[in-house]
Amino acid sequence: xxxxxxxxxxxxxxxxxxxxxxxxxxxxxxxxxxxxxxxxxxxxxxxxxxxxxxxxxxxxxxxxxxxxxxxxxxxxxxxxxxxxxxxxxxxxxxxxxxxxxxxxxxxxxxxxx
Amino acid sequence: xxxxxxxxxxxxxxxxxxxxxxxxxxxxxxxxxxxxxxxxxxxxxxxxxxxxxxxxxxxxxxxxxxxxxxxxxxxxxxxxxxxxxxxxxxxxxxxxxxxxxxxxxxxxxxxxxx
Lengths: 113, 114
Known about the structure:
- The complex is a heterodimer of chains A (113) and B (114).
- Chain A has no helices and 11 strands.
- Chain A has 113 residues and is mainly beta.
- Chain A is globular and about 40 Å long.
- The N and C termini of chain A lie far apart (38 Å).
- In chain A, 35% of the residues are buried.
- The model of chain A has no long low-confidence stretch (mean pLDDT 91).
- Chain B is mostly beta strands.
- Chain B is built from no helices and 11 strands.
- Chain B is globular, with a radius of gyration of 13 Å.
- Chain B starts with a strand and ends with a strand.
């Protein structure tokens, strides 16, 4: 079983739709949860960061962590064509292993005008 | 130049060639990484250097050889590669000990092994 599972998609939605991206994980020691966005021909960039359980909102983006279910989500409201990218979930332990992230395989999102 | 820069952006090499990938970070970070990104697979951590000392080597074949001469520069020396090594190689940097451990990635070097 992979430590982090993420549906690779592709996911295609019309402009303005609400998008839900998800990852499941198996290691209950993970405490730091991140979403990276990767545009075509670019490196990943950090989009959202959450520590432990709960929600975090930033503009049109909301990150949710449910540690009891080992499940994290990224919601995008009012999706725009500029949101078309690959979204990578990532997580790490809270033991000071800075930077040793475990990544999902990424979900490719296309938002059609 | 700002952020993390990687050269070359594209590289085609034969299985008997020797080449090197270069990474430079302008963020003042003290940790640098090499990741391999293959289609439909998660990012694979290859090497980590913290304060110029290699602290992670994830069972990477010896045909990949990293070098970190200082905290701003990182190289990946390639020798006798196989076609399955074709992938996007991403360099990243971070500040060891930061609360988020955020990685800052370069744009990658696309490697094709013939």
